[in-house]
Design brief:
Protein name: Chloride conductance regulatory protein ICln
Shape: globular
Main location: cytoplasm
GO biological process, one term: mRNA cis splicing, via spliceosome
Number of strands: 14
Organism: Leersia perrieri
CATH class: Mainly Beta
Keywords: Cytoplasm, Nucleus
Radius of gyration: 19 Å
């Protein structure tokens, strides 16, 4: 398993991250004035986001020379989130493999005495200054997931993809594991792009939009029962 979220301080002379050119790492995308939110914490002050063929790197503007990075091999799931009831700002939502795979790994356990414990952060949100760029960033994530397939993935390519019947109460299902939003929100409607996962081929072409509205279906069922009783 690739290490999860890590501190990043390997800064080049131009202020950007120093890439591992020997292994063929290349820079694919840069987004300025991008914020990140770890777990349930408030977003960090805006910094610069760098997406390479191997990892996602975010460098702080307020703490020069400091940042965080996560390998694509450790990103188990990513999506575009635009529902304000799920999260106040449109963002790229990601889930990260951690040392602690318990249900509460993405919650308050990621902090100890107010300090962020990076090895326990299982959720990261990326908030861009221009929300209109989220789809383009999502496409880059899908491309990088294809470049970094999970070496332990099985042969079932459908494992880990969403289908409507697997989504309930605003929660997210990933493979055989129930993954719910770290905010604990129970939104009536959650709207998002279909999630990309490492090890699944042709991710970009498989993106769909899902809309879940439990209340709508409940009202329709009640109306149907009323009509039957009326007859």
């Amino acid at each position: 398993m690739a290490p999860g979220l890590q501190r990043f301080t390997d800064i080049a002379g131009d202020g950007g991250p120093r890439l591992d050119a020997a292994s063929g790492e290349e820079l694919l995308r840069v987004d300025h004035a991008a914020s990140v939110a770890f777990g349930r914490r408030a977003p960090e002050p805006p910094g610069t986001l760098f997406v390479t063929t191997r990892r996602v790197i975010w460098l702080s503007e307020t703490e020069k020379g400091q940042g965080n990075a996560v390998d694509f091999l450790a990103i188990t799931l990513h999506a575009v989130s635009r529902d304000p009831e799920a999260y106040p700002s449109p963002c790229i939502y990601t889930q990260i493999d951690t040392e602690d795979c318990s249900e509460e790994a993405g919650g308050s356990d990621s902090e100890a005495n107010g300090e962020l414990q990076l090895t326990k952060v299982s959720e990261m949100r990326i908030i861009l200054s221009d929300p209109g760029q989220l789809d383009a960033l999502f496409d880059v994530f899908c491309h990088c997931a294809e470049l970094n397939p999970d070496p332990n993935a099985g042969g079932n390519e459908e494992n880990g993809w969403f289908s409507g019947e697997n989504m309930a109460g605003g929660g997210w299902i990933h493979g055989d594991e129930d993954m719910t939003d770290g905010n604990g929100l129970e939104a009536d409607m959650f709207f998002m792009n279909l999630i990309g996962q490492n090890g699944v081929h042709d991710l970009g072409r498989s993106v769909r939009e899902l809309q879940i509205d439990d209340q709508r279906f409940e009202d329709a069922e009640e109306e149907h029962e009323t009509r039957e009783n009326g007859h």
